[in-house]
From TrEMBL:
InterPro entries: Solute-binding_3/MltF_N. Signal peptide: none annotated. PANTHER family: ABC TRANSPORTER EXTRACELLULAR-BINDING PROTEIN YCKB-RELATED, MEMBRANE-BOUND LYTIC MUREIN TRANSGLYCOSYLASE F. Keywords: Signal. Transmembrane segments: none annotated. Residues 54-277 form the Solute-binding protein family 3/N-terminal domain. Pfam families: SBP_bac_3. It comes from the Bacteria. This is Transporter substrate-binding domain-containing protein. It comes from Faecalicatena fissicatena.
Amino acid sequence: MYFEKRTARNRKYRKFLHSHQQKLILLGVFVFVISIVCGCSNQKEQESDGSLQKITVGIDKFEPYSYLDMDGNYTGVDIEIASKVFHELGYEPDFKFITWSEKHTCLADGTIDCIWSCYSMNDRENDYQWAGPYLYSRQVIAVASDSDIQTFDDLLGKNVGVQDTTRAAELFFHTIDSALPEVKQVNCFATTEDMFAALRKGYVDAIAGHEALLNELIINGKGKYRLLDESPYISKIGIAFQKGTHEELTQKINGLIKEMSEDGTIGSIAEKYGLDAEKVVIRGGSDEK
């Protein structure tokens, strides 16, 4: 008798337990469904509120490509092109000045998402995930107006100033092919301002860099400086992302760059900052002039 009563109680308990488990499962399903609905609702609100996803863009103080205007606003050729491209793709660019010699580290550790500041693609094609090229830039050499340096050969045995880790530095160190002679000393400076100051004070006999940059020195120098006629190198300018990342985004950027070069947008921006669009714009997003 006792055994029969105990068995009956066990049956009731198992029935209660089974019913309770079913209720818990149904509750779990309900919570899961509600979370999905709420999640979708929040996502729709984020997409419909007009906000743009932030992307951090590493730049150098490098007129006329990327610098601050008199009011402290970011401006320049690259700033305007980058802003148009990223806004079209749903991003809000957050421009960030970086130490140029540390640009690769800043990209690798996530301090920045990309480098967009007159950065040469040539011979770096395998170092990054690239978008571009979108502009050409001649590398040129500036000297004082009364200097006896007229050609590359006259640089033999002279002191030359360059910005550290730039294409100009590689040309004078001959880490890439160059028709430049062996100079007495290559002085590397952290910033272009330091490089300009070295030429003004006579610490170096010549400086080298992108043509648009050195043209600023020529214009502001009011006749004190001049450029050599020869150019040792023509750079193709692009946008660098960490290698192996942002493949879809770089493809979209390339598509917009092609459109903007064909419809004259990039040319208009270049000319706004004193560049010759016919010489610097890469037509159709290709590297054919």
